[in-house]
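Protein modeling request. Please complete all fields; requests missing the sequence field cannot be processed.
Requester role: graduate student
Desired output: 3D structure, token encoding
Chains: 1
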Amino acid sequence: MSQFFYIHPENPQVRLIKQTVEILKKGGVIIYPTDSGYALGCTMDNKHGLDKICKIRDLDKKHNFTLACSDLSEIATYARVDNQAFRALKNNTPGAYTFIFKSTKDLPKRLMNPAKRTIGIRIPNNVIALALLAELGEPLMTTSLILPGFQSTEFDPEEIRDQLENQVDLILNGGYLGESPTTVVDFSDDSVVVVREGAGDITPFQ
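Delivered output (206 residues):
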């Protein structure tokens, strides 16, 4: 059975953030709040955690996984970002976007899309998520909590607890959230493509 932390949405308790990071570093899988519903997360080196997340979401290896980052300084290590794309990120982050880029050689192969060699990058506009990422000190492997058969992200932490408390190590209850997933923008080819319209405004990318 997972742990369940009630965490303040505007002033997250430092003690709970530190405990969350400890769980992640010990190989745990967590559910945490973002600016586009709840998400699943584990550390980048946690192969077992990634497998568990794929099982919960019924994902195959072709899925574009995402790294949640605390700021832009972490991105260049794992994604190839040109000047145009960097300006777009700077102007639209933190925000409810996932940006897809070609990956660098420093990204673990199991995290990149095997056919396109891409990775999603996002900086969530959520106080709890940003506090968690700052304390972790590295990107978090993440994907929106969209259960099999559904199109929207899970938004009710109590319902999430009922459904998934035996499948993850920790659920962070940051209150009710929006149901729209991130807007996905693909920068991996010559042209910029909006792959999915979600919580983020697509106007800057049209």
